[in-house]
Amino acid sequence: MRFFTQRRRFRDLTEQEIIALAISNEEDDARIYRSFAQTVRDDYPATAKVFDGMAIEEDAHRQQLINLHVARFGETIPLIRREHVAGAYARRPVWLMTNLDVARLRAEAAEMERTAETFYRKAAEHSTDAATRKLLGDLAAAEADHQDTAHQLENAHLDADSRDVESETAKRQFLLTWVQPGLAGLMDGSVSTLAPIFATAFATQDTWTTFLVGLAASVGAGISMGFTEAASDDGQLSGRGSPIKRGFASGVMTTVGGLGHALPYLITDFWTATVIAIIVVFIELWAIAWIQNKFMETPFFRAAFQVVLGGALVFAAGVLIGNG
């Protein structure tokens, strides 16, 4: 309870403290927008200009608020921030937001302005002092102006050509960071685990043992592929993105690819489990071919032939070894 008693309620703030809170809010938001701009500047220069413009706009409103405070209360501005006020809107840590893609960053910026406007309007509704109510209304209007300014900046800097270029860059980044590592993991998990799983199945005809082997092979391959992908390239020179994201995509999809035909062996009847596992393998291989066609622009029948042929050879090797 001590934590809550240390936070001021908004309705208990003086007019001077409200202005001081608004000043710190504007300062924080300007820093966040500059962080956004720095994050996307290399790949999305037009969007970086939008965020730069929004930061400048926040600075201008902050200066207006400082001038208002100096005129009414003097030059000593009280130190009060969002975290000091119960019920104040919060901002997510910058290091979490800068990992978002460019479209999400734009949406995050718009949400920042909306929450600030809503906060000031709600506060104005609960205020009984006319001067304070007017002040809060002015702050809400200022935040609404920020939203209009953001749209104007987008129209100025993000013309049709710039949007097309940035969309293509975002698509390429998505492919390099998520699709390519995930596809490699799915292929490895689906194909490489065929031999140990089906060799164990036909050698023992014990579904539980087969499931445990499949589980171990899938999880082990997932961990191995994840660490290998993350350690192979830090993404700085290749532009492939965060190694953690790529490692996660590769590791998870490798595990999923192996578990797909291991899970049927939770069924106690051997032949029922095996038939279902074979059907799952068929679905997995065609799914891989579809992903290659859709995202990597590989002709579908060529992708299907390569994947199905490779999977069939590994499957046959597992069956032959298991029956040997």
Provide a brief overview of the structure:
The chain has 324 residues and is mainly α. The protein has helices at 2-5, 15-40, 45-73, 94-97, 102-125, 130-157, 160-192, 194-204, 207-232, 243-260, 270-295, 300-322; strands spanning 8-9, 85-86. Helix 2 (15-40) packs antiparallel against helix 5 (102-125), helix 7 crosses helix 9 (207-232) and helix 8 runs antiparallel to helix 9.
Keywords:
mainly alpha, 2 domains, Ferritin, elongated, 324 residues, 78% helix
List the helices and strands and how they pair.
Elements: H1 2-5, E1 8-9, H2 15-40, H3 45-73, E2 85-86, H4 94-97, H5 102-125, H6 130-157, H7 160-192, H8 194-204, H9 207-232, H10 243-260, H11 270-295, H12 300-322
Parallel strand pairs: 1-2
Helix pairs in contact: 2-3, 2-5, 2-6, 3-6, 5-6, 7-9, 7-10, 7-11, 7-12, 8-9, 8-12, 9-10, 11-12
